[in-house]
Input
Amino acid sequence: MKLTTSYQREINRFCKSISAGDYNIKEVTAGALTQARAKLDPWAFKRLISISLDTFYSEVDFNKWHGMRLLAVDGSIINLPHSKSVVVDFGKESYIRKAGSPKSLGRASLLYDLLNQLTLDAQLDGYRISERTLLERHLDKVTNEDLVLGDRNYGVTPVLHMLANKGAKFCIRVKAGTNARREVQEFIASDRQEKVVFFIHQQDVFINK
Output
Protein backbone atom coordinates (compact mmCIF):
# COMPACT_ATOMS: atom_id res chain seq x y z
CA MET A 1 0.00 0.00 0.00
CA LYS A 2 1.33 3.43 -0.92
CA LEU A 3 1.18 6.05 1.82
CA THR A 4 -0.51 9.31 0.87
CA THR A 5 0.29 11.11 4.13
CA SER A 6 3.24 11.28 6.51
CA TYR A 7 4.38 8.32 8.59
CA GLN A 8 3.31 10.09 11.76
CA ARG A 9 -0.25 10.69 10.53
CA GLU A 10 -0.57 7.07 9.46
CA ILE A 11 0.77 5.84 12.82
CA ASN A 12 -1.70 8.05 14.69
CA ARG A 13 -4.56 6.80 12.52
CA PHE A 14 -3.54 3.18 13.12
CA CYS A 15 -3.30 3.66 16.90
CA LYS A 16 -6.74 5.28 16.97
CA SER A 17 -8.18 2.39 14.98
CA ILE A 18 -6.88 -0.40 17.21
CA SER A 19 -7.73 1.43 20.44
CA ALA A 20 -11.14 2.61 19.21
CA GLY A 21 -10.33 6.04 20.63
CA ASP A 22 -11.29 9.43 19.29
CA TYR A 23 -8.54 11.35 21.01
CA ASN A 24 -5.43 12.71 19.31
CA ILE A 25 -2.50 11.42 21.32
CA LYS A 26 0.84 10.60 19.74
CA GLU A 27 1.30 7.09 21.12
CA VAL A 28 4.11 6.09 18.75
CA THR A 29 6.52 8.44 17.00
CA ALA A 30 7.88 8.03 13.49
CA GLY A 31 11.37 7.78 14.99
CA ALA A 32 10.28 4.89 17.22
CA LEU A 33 8.86 3.09 14.19
CA THR A 34 12.15 3.53 12.33
CA GLN A 35 14.17 2.16 15.25
CA ALA A 36 11.82 -0.79 15.73
CA ARG A 37 11.86 -1.60 12.02
CA ALA A 38 15.68 -1.70 12.04
CA LYS A 39 15.52 -4.52 14.62
CA LEU A 40 13.35 -6.80 12.49
CA ASP A 41 15.00 -10.09 11.58
CA PRO A 42 15.09 -10.50 7.77
CA TRP A 43 14.62 -14.25 8.28
CA ALA A 44 10.99 -13.60 9.25
CA PHE A 45 10.22 -12.07 5.86
CA LYS A 46 11.98 -14.91 4.03
CA ARG A 47 9.98 -17.45 5.98
CA LEU A 48 6.68 -15.66 5.35
CA ILE A 49 7.39 -15.47 1.63
CA SER A 50 8.32 -19.17 1.56
CA ILE A 51 5.06 -20.13 3.28
CA SER A 52 3.06 -17.89 0.93
CA LEU A 53 4.64 -19.43 -2.16
CA ASP A 54 4.20 -23.00 -0.93
CA THR A 55 0.54 -22.30 -0.16
CA PHE A 56 -0.08 -20.65 -3.53
CA TYR A 57 1.45 -23.40 -5.65
CA SER A 58 -0.18 -26.20 -3.64
CA GLU A 59 -3.71 -24.76 -3.44
CA VAL A 60 -4.19 -22.58 -6.53
CA ASP A 61 -4.70 -23.62 -10.14
CA PHE A 62 -1.94 -21.28 -11.24
CA ASN A 63 -1.05 -20.17 -14.76
CA LYS A 64 1.32 -22.27 -16.84
CA TRP A 65 2.76 -22.18 -20.36
CA HIS A 66 2.50 -25.54 -22.12
CA GLY A 67 2.31 -27.21 -18.70
CA MET A 68 5.36 -25.39 -17.29
CA ARG A 69 5.96 -22.47 -15.00
CA LEU A 70 7.56 -19.67 -16.99
CA LEU A 71 10.41 -18.27 -14.90
CA ALA A 72 12.72 -15.36 -15.70
CA VAL A 73 16.03 -14.60 -14.03
CA ASP A 74 17.92 -11.33 -14.20
CA GLY A 75 20.39 -9.29 -12.21
CA SER A 76 20.99 -5.61 -11.60
CA ILE A 77 23.46 -3.28 -9.90
CA ILE A 78 22.13 -1.38 -6.89
CA ASN A 79 23.48 1.81 -5.33
CA LEU A 80 23.61 1.12 -1.59
CA PRO A 81 23.16 3.74 1.16
CA HIS A 82 26.30 5.07 2.77
CA SER A 83 26.86 3.68 6.24
CA LYS A 84 29.65 1.94 8.14
CA SER A 85 27.84 -1.40 8.20
CA VAL A 86 27.19 -1.28 4.44
CA VAL A 87 30.86 -0.52 3.73
CA VAL A 88 31.92 -3.43 5.97
CA ASP A 89 29.64 -5.88 4.14
CA PHE A 90 29.91 -4.58 0.58
CA GLY A 91 33.06 -2.46 0.44
CA LYS A 92 33.52 0.46 -1.95
CA GLU A 93 34.13 0.68 -5.67
CA SER A 94 36.30 3.56 -6.85
CA TYR A 95 36.20 3.01 -10.62
CA ILE A 96 32.49 3.44 -11.24
CA ARG A 97 31.83 5.63 -14.26
CA LYS A 98 30.59 9.18 -13.51
CA ALA A 99 30.92 8.64 -9.76
CA GLY A 100 32.52 11.54 -7.91
CA SER A 101 33.70 9.36 -5.04
CA PRO A 102 33.90 5.64 -4.14
CA LYS A 103 30.47 4.05 -3.72
CA SER A 104 29.08 0.92 -2.15
CA LEU A 105 27.34 -1.23 -4.73
CA GLY A 106 25.45 -4.48 -4.59
CA ARG A 107 24.40 -7.00 -7.21
CA ALA A 108 20.80 -8.16 -6.95
CA SER A 109 19.16 -11.08 -8.73
CA LEU A 110 15.51 -12.12 -8.99
CA LEU A 111 13.86 -15.36 -10.03
CA TYR A 112 10.36 -14.39 -11.13
CA ASP A 113 7.25 -16.32 -12.15
CA LEU A 114 6.09 -14.29 -15.15
CA LEU A 115 2.57 -15.63 -15.59
CA ASN A 116 1.64 -15.50 -11.91
CA GLN A 117 3.61 -12.33 -11.10
CA LEU A 118 5.45 -13.80 -8.12
CA THR A 119 9.05 -13.44 -7.00
CA LEU A 120 10.28 -16.92 -6.12
CA ASP A 121 13.68 -15.87 -4.82
CA ALA A 122 15.79 -12.72 -4.39
CA GLN A 123 19.52 -12.53 -3.77
CA LEU A 124 21.78 -9.60 -2.89
CA ASP A 125 25.55 -9.75 -2.71
CA GLY A 126 28.63 -7.71 -3.50
CA TYR A 127 29.15 -5.93 -6.81
CA ARG A 128 31.93 -8.35 -7.82
CA ILE A 129 29.71 -11.42 -7.43
CA SER A 130 28.49 -12.56 -10.85
CA GLU A 131 24.90 -13.00 -11.96
CA ARG A 132 25.73 -16.63 -12.68
CA THR A 133 26.74 -17.21 -9.06
CA LEU A 134 23.48 -15.69 -7.87
CA LEU A 135 21.57 -17.86 -10.33
CA GLU A 136 23.09 -20.92 -8.70
CA ARG A 137 21.60 -19.79 -5.39
CA HIS A 138 18.15 -19.61 -7.03
CA LEU A 139 18.25 -23.21 -8.22
CA ASP A 140 16.62 -24.75 -5.15
CA LYS A 141 13.44 -22.97 -6.33
CA VAL A 142 13.65 -24.44 -9.84
CA THR A 143 12.09 -27.80 -10.77
CA ASN A 144 11.98 -30.04 -13.82
CA GLU A 145 8.56 -28.55 -14.62
CA ASP A 146 9.94 -25.06 -15.22
CA LEU A 147 11.12 -23.15 -18.29
CA VAL A 148 13.81 -20.63 -17.30
CA LEU A 149 14.37 -17.53 -19.44
CA GLY A 150 17.65 -15.61 -19.29
CA ASP A 151 19.53 -12.90 -21.14
CA ARG A 152 22.98 -13.10 -22.73
CA ASN A 153 24.89 -13.06 -19.43
CA TYR A 154 23.63 -16.58 -18.77
CA GLY A 155 24.44 -18.02 -22.18
CA VAL A 156 27.59 -19.87 -21.13
CA THR A 157 28.32 -23.56 -20.71
CA PRO A 158 28.49 -23.62 -16.86
CA VAL A 159 24.98 -22.13 -16.62
CA LEU A 160 23.59 -24.57 -19.18
CA HIS A 161 25.27 -27.33 -17.21
CA MET A 162 23.64 -26.20 -13.94
CA LEU A 163 20.16 -25.96 -15.44
CA ALA A 164 20.47 -29.27 -17.27
CA ASN A 165 21.53 -31.02 -14.07
CA LYS A 166 18.46 -29.54 -12.40
CA GLY A 167 16.27 -31.02 -15.13
CA ALA A 168 14.82 -27.62 -16.02
CA LYS A 169 14.11 -26.44 -19.56
CA PHE A 170 15.66 -23.13 -20.53
CA CYS A 171 15.65 -20.48 -23.24
CA ILE A 172 18.68 -18.19 -23.09
CA ARG A 173 19.94 -15.54 -25.47
CA VAL A 174 23.47 -16.10 -26.76
CA LYS A 175 26.06 -13.46 -27.55
CA ALA A 176 26.85 -13.05 -31.22
CA GLY A 177 30.35 -11.61 -30.89
CA THR A 178 33.73 -13.20 -31.46
CA ASN A 179 33.51 -15.03 -28.11
CA ALA A 180 30.32 -16.83 -29.09
CA ARG A 181 30.30 -20.60 -29.37
CA ARG A 182 31.33 -21.98 -32.74
CA GLU A 183 27.79 -23.27 -33.35
CA VAL A 184 26.38 -19.76 -32.84
CA GLN A 185 28.93 -18.18 -35.16
CA GLU A 186 28.19 -20.73 -37.87
CA PHE A 187 24.44 -20.18 -37.53
CA ILE A 188 24.77 -16.38 -37.78
CA ALA A 189 26.99 -16.73 -40.86
CA SER A 190 24.41 -18.97 -42.56
CA ASP A 191 21.12 -17.95 -44.15
CA ARG A 192 19.09 -20.30 -41.95
CA GLN A 193 16.21 -19.07 -39.78
CA GLU A 194 16.51 -21.83 -37.20
CA LYS A 195 18.70 -24.78 -36.27
CA VAL A 196 18.56 -27.55 -33.70
CA VAL A 197 21.87 -28.47 -32.07
CA PHE A 198 22.18 -31.39 -29.64
CA PHE A 199 24.70 -31.35 -26.81
CA ILE A 200 25.66 -34.46 -24.87
CA HIS A 201 26.72 -34.02 -21.27
CA GLN A 202 29.99 -35.86 -21.03
CA GLN A 203 32.77 -35.36 -18.48
CA ASP A 204 31.41 -32.00 -17.33
CA VAL A 205 31.36 -30.47 -20.82
CA PHE A 206 28.74 -30.08 -23.52
CA ILE A 207 29.86 -31.63 -26.78
CA ASN A 208 28.16 -30.70 -30.05
CA LYS A 209 26.90 -33.67 -32.07
Summary: The radius of gyration is 23 Å. The chain has a mean pLDDT of 83. The chain has seven helices and seven strands. Strands lie at 69-79, 105-113, 118-126, 146-150, 169-172, 199-202, 205-208.
